[in-house]
């Protein structure tokens, strides 16, 4: 029995219990919400609308027409939709409007490789499903120039505006200064494509990317090389939702939890060389 079926049974059971209770709630008193209330909070009935930023491989892998066909996040959310019994529709958005679009009601979920941070939790609720680290990257022909992160001191690095890339680069630059080395020259680009172009063209020496994304790109023949060890810590990756839609959050979280427990998520993620984490709410602390 999938999640939608269980929600329907739970709702029917709740209705029967109220009927048998005879009197029910007094006039003017709030009726308890049914277990299936989450699906009524969808922006479009019967459809889970997902905002995403492309390119974002391996979280979303797009075809020649820039339509996502597979990926870590896509495969998971497709399975969530099947579990809930709803259609999943993907809507490409600009990075700058992704998080604000959740509050504005343009989509039910935003995310792909989206890191859960305490700052972002103030703008929405995360259902986290994996944890990863980020790494410095460079082009293959320049890989020999960098053995450790500190070899990046005094060099230029491309980051994506409004992302944790900027934080990582700033922290490393501060570390360079403490070590008596030159700081990084940090440039913030509006999109991933712009940052990648800067690296490929030689306008910048380094970039920052998640380890899964960098490793996937390399397997696809990309001109990439990892530099040193990943940055310390790491972040949970999750689907961001409107905090006011608590029943919908519960429904999606329940579906993800079912998929995790029955092994579906592990099988889906194995195709991309990553492992899932047990789904949880706002796990980043």
From TrEMBL:
Keyword NAD: no
Signal sequence range: 1-27
Keyword Signal: yes
Keywords recorded for this protein, A-Z: Signal
Entry-linked SUPFAM superfamilies: Periplasmic binding protein-like II (SSF53850)
Species this chain originates from: Microbacterium azadirachtae
Protein name: Glutamine-binding periplasmic protein
All residue ranges annotated as the Solute-binding protein family 3/N-terminal domain in the record: 47-276
Gene3D superfamilies membership: Periplasmic binding protein-like II
InterPro entries: Solute-binding_3/MltF_N (IPR001638)
PROSITE patterns associated with the record: PROKAR_LIPOPROTEIN
Pfam families found in the cross-reference section: SBP_bac_3
């Amino acid at each position: 029995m999938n999640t939608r079926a269980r929600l329907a049974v739970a709702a029917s059971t709740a209705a029967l219990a109220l009927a048998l209770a005879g009197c029910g709630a007094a006039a003017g008193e709030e009726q308890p919400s049914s277990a299936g209330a989450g699906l009524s909070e969808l922006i479009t009935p019967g459809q889970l609308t997902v905002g995403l930023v492309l390119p974002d491989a391996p979280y979303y892998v797009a075809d020649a027409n820039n339509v996502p066909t597979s990926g870590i996040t896509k495969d998971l959310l497709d399975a969530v939709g099947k579990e809930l019994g709803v259609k999943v529709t993907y809507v490409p958005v600009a990075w700058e409007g992704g998080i604000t679009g959740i509050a504005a009601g343009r989509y039910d979920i935003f995310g792909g490789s989206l890191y859960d941070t305490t700052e972002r939790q103030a703008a929405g609720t995360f259902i986290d499903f994996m944890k990863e680290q980020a790494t410095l990257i460079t082009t293959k022909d320049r890989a020999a120039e960098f053995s450790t992160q500190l070899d990046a001191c005094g060099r230029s690095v491309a980051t994506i505006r409004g992302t944790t890339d900027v934080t990582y680069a700033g922290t490393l630059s501060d570390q360079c200064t403490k070590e008596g080395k030159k700081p990084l020259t940090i440039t913030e680009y509006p999109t991933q494509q712009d940052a990648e172009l800067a690296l490929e063209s030689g306008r910048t020496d380094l970039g920052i990317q998640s380890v899964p994304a960098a490793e996937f790109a390399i397997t696809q023949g990309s001109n990439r090389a990892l530099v040193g060890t990943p940055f310390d810590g790491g972040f949970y990756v999750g689907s961001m939702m409107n905090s006011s839609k608590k029943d919908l959050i519960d429904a999606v979280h329940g579906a993800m939890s079912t998929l995790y427990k029955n092994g579906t998520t592990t099988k889906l993620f194995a195709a991309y060389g990553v492992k899932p984490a047990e789904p949880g709410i706002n796990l980043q602390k």
